[in-house]
Structures are given as C-alpha cells and as structure tokens.
C-alpha cells in the first residue's frame, strides 16, 4: 500500500511538470495491487510518463495526436484504458497504436479511438486502418536506411583515403642532389628560425661578401652549394619540412 502511494505521488509530480495542464493527473492505488491513473479532460498534448504498475489508464477527451512507439509496452498489468475523444493524426506515427490496440483490444473501453486527420481517414477507427494504408511508411523507412548506409560507407571511404594519404606522405622521400641546381627550392624556405642557425647564417654571409673568390667564380668544378652550410640545410629540411635525407 505504501509503495503504491509513493508511486502515485511521484507520478503526480512528474506529470504536473511535464505537461502544460491546469492540474495533474489523478492517481490512486488499487486493491489488492496496481495503480489507477486518471488523466481525462486535462488538455494533454502528449501521453505523460507512466508507472509500470499502472492497471487502469484514462486518457479520454484530451488533445493527443499520437502515442509514441513503445509507450504502452511496459504496462504489462494494464486491465483498462480509454483513449476516445482525442484528435489522433493517422500518419506513419500512429502505426504503433494501431498494432497495440489490435493486440490488446480486450482492455480498451469507453469507445473506439478514431482518426481526426488527415481528411481521407477522418472518423475512421484506428484499428480499421489496413496494412496497405501503411505501405508507404515501410518504403520511407527502407529509403532512410539505404541513405544512412550510403552516407556511412562514403564517410568510411573518405576517412580511409585520408589515412592512406597521411601514410603515403609520411613514407615519401625527396632526393636532393647537391651538384645540381633546384629552381623549385626557395632560399627563404631553408632558413632556420633557431638563433644559433641565424647567427651562423649571418657569419657565413659576411664571409662570402669579404671573399671575392666565393662571390664570383666561373669554375665548373666548384660545388653549386656551399658545403659549409650543408648540415644546416639538411637539418632544416628534416625538422621544418619533414624531408628525410637519404644517402645514395
């Protein structure tokens, strides 16, 4: 008895906060067990949360347009339910209620719930809707599943391509021949930002300016790259540009 009263009080609080109704549903414990939930004429637009111990449920004369899928499945002890007087919208979303009513017709009382819209099935009993009426719903569900699958496959393929590209870039090598000119390499891109490298570069520049033999020469045997700064160039290529140097 105390357990049933506690559930009733909890349901009152939940229902009053979940629905914009002037007053909460009326709940009372039944003997020897069970719970009666009276939500009739409350202007409810959604079915309130229900206790699994509910045995009698009165939802007539509200503004319900549908019942969420699976909402009544937990009510295993339900012995009576009234749903008449609600403007049910009979689209694909009413399919759960139609199936549930057909399976649990013995507990339905107070009149047969009917469709209020669309106009083609207005005033038609929900249980009278045929399987053909919901044939388009199955097609929409299948189309949605196919679309989701295609999008998932495309995303997986894109991620795979990105990973493959990163792996290819990581394993790629760049061969730099120091005895040939490379017009594609900019001098600024080989400059290191480290202070010691910048100081070394300034020192080498001053030495080149002071030495006429280093600034101008037509000797074909002379290397096209100053061998003194080669370690710096290799270090910058490896650390800044992620270019691996391979000796051949």
TrEMBL record:
SUPFAM superfamilies: L domain-like. It is found in: Membrane. InterPro entries: Cys-rich_flank_reg_C (IPR000483), GPIb-IX-V_Complex (IPR052313), LRR_dom_sf (IPR032675). The chain crosses the membrane at residues 145-166. It is a single-pass membrane protein. Its main location: membrane. Residues 198-219 are annotated as: Disordered. Keywords: Cell adhesion, Disulfide bond, Leucine-rich repeat, Membrane, Signal, Transmembrane, Transmembrane helix. Residues 86-138 form the LRRCT domain. Residues 1-18 form the signal peptide. The keyword Isomerase does not apply. PANTHER family: GLYCOPROTEIN IB BETA, PLATELET GLYCOPROTEIN IX. This is Glycoprotein IX (Platelet). The lineage of its organism: Eukaryota, Metazoa, Chordata, Craniata, Vertebrata.
């Amino acid at each position: 008895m105390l357990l049933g009263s506690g559930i009733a009080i909890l349901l009152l609080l939940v229902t009053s906060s979940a629905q914009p109704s002037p007053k909460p549903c009326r709940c009372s414990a039944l003997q020897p067990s069970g719970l009666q939930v009276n939500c009739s004429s409350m202007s409810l637009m959604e079915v309130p949360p229900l206790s699994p111990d509910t045995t009698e449920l009165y939802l007539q004369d509200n503004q319900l347009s549908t019942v969420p899928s699976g909402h009544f499945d937990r009510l295993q002890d339900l012995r009576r339910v009234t749903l008449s007087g609600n403007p049910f919208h009979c689209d694909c979303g009413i399919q759960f209620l139609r199936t549930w009513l057909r399976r649990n017709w013995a507990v339905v009382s107070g009149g047969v719930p009917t469709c209020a819209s669309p106009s083609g099935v207005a005033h038609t009993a929900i249980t009278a809707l045929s399987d053909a009426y919901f044939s388009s719903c199955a097609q929409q569900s299948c189309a949605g599943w196919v679309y989701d699958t295609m999008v998932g496959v495309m995303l997986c393929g894109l991620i795979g391509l990105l990973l493959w590209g990163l792996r290819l870039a990581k394993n790629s090598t760049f061969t730099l021949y120091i005895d040939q000119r490379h017009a594609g390499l900019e001098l600024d891109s080989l400059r290191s930002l480290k202070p010691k490298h910048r100081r070394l570069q300034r020192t080498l520049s001053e030495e080149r300016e002071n030495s006429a033999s280093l600034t101008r020469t037509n000797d074909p045997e002379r290397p096209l790259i100053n061998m003194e700064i080669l370690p710096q160039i290799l270090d910058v290529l490896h650390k800044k540009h992620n270019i691996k140097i391979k000796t051949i």
